[in-house]
Design a protein that fits this description.
Elements lengths: L1 H10 L15 E11 L3 E11 L2 E9 L1 H5 L5 E9 L1 E3 L2 E16 L1 E16 L3 E18 L2 E20 L1
Antiparallel strand pairs: 1-2, 1-9, 2-3, 3-4, 4-6, 5-6, 6-7, 7-8, 8-9
Length: about 160
């Protein structure tokens, strides 16, 4: 039991252990993102919250490539990044989970999980670049059979966002 308590205190992140009289500030950001990956590209609206350089983001997007083909392709991305400031730029690791789907005769569903890095420049207006790599599963039903394929996928994001302080 003592070892469990010691491990909990050592592994407890800073934002869970703040003093009672401290009020951490949360910075909210809204922006636009263009994502390129192995299977498709997505244009997204990004909503982001930052507290103590811990960033949680949600991206809602569409594939412009599929919209031209009259195919509705929604995408949802959730990511977490921990950034450190180095000479007025921010760099750190990122973990990304995303899903997208489209119907082209049958419904295709893609689930992505990846890890990588994020590079951010600026304060009020921020430009960011994010690159990640990880496994992807593609699922579809054809001739009443469920098919599932696993592959590796890359994600490259470029974005511009505005911070509300």
């Amino acid at each position: 039991m003592n070892r469990l308590l010691i491990c909990c205190f050592l592994l407890c992140p800073y934002f869970f252990c703040q003093a009672q009289n401290q009020h951490p500030t949360v910075v909210w950001r809204v922006g636009f993102t263009q994502e390129f990956q192995k299977f498709d590209q997505f244009s997204s609206i990004s909503f982001q919250g930052e507290q103590n350089k811990n960033i949680f983001a949600v991206n809602l997007g569409l594939s412009p490539q599929k919209v031209v083909q009259n195919i509705f392709t929604p995408a949802l991305t959730i990511d977490y990044a921990k950034l450190w400031e180095i000479h007025r730029v921010f760099v750190g690791p990122v973990i990304v989970f995303s899903a997208d789907t489209h119907v082209f005769g049958t419904r295709f569903t893609y689930l992505h999980a990846s890890v990588g890095y994020r590079f951010v420049s600026g304060k009020q207006w921020q430009f960011f670049q994010e690159t990640s790599y990880g496994p992807t599963t593609e699922t579809f039903i054809y001739l009443d059979q469920k098919n599932q394929q696993f592959t590796w996928n890359y994600h490259v994001k470029l974005g511009l966002q505005y911070a509300f302080r």
